[in-house]
Amino acid sequence: MGIITGNHFLDRLNNMKTEIWYDGEKIKGMLSEHPAFKGILQTKASLYDLQCDSEYIKKMTYLSPQTNSLIGLSFLQPKTKEDLKKKREMFEIWAKHTHGLMGRSPDYMNTIVMSFASSSAALLKGKENCFPENILAVFENAKENDLCFTHTFITPQINRSQYNFDCPKDPISAKVIDRNEKGIIIKGARLLATQGGLTDEVLVYTAPRKFMDPAEAFAFSIPSNTKGLKFICRESFVGGESPINHPLSSRYEEMDSIVVFDNVLVPWDRVFFYDNVDAAYDFMLHSSFHHFATHQAVTRQIVKTEFVLGIAELLVETINVSEYQHIQEKLSEIIIGLETMKALVEKSEHDAELDEWGYMRPSLLPLQVATNVFPRIYPRFSEIIQLIGASGMVSIPTEKAFESEIRTDLDQYLQGASKTAEERVKIFRLAWDLTMSSFGTRQTHYERYFFGDPIRLSSTLYQTYPKSEHVRNVCDFLDLY
Question: Which fold has domain 6-283?
Answer without folding.
Answer: Butyryl-CoA Dehydrogenase, subunit A; domain 2 (2.40.110)
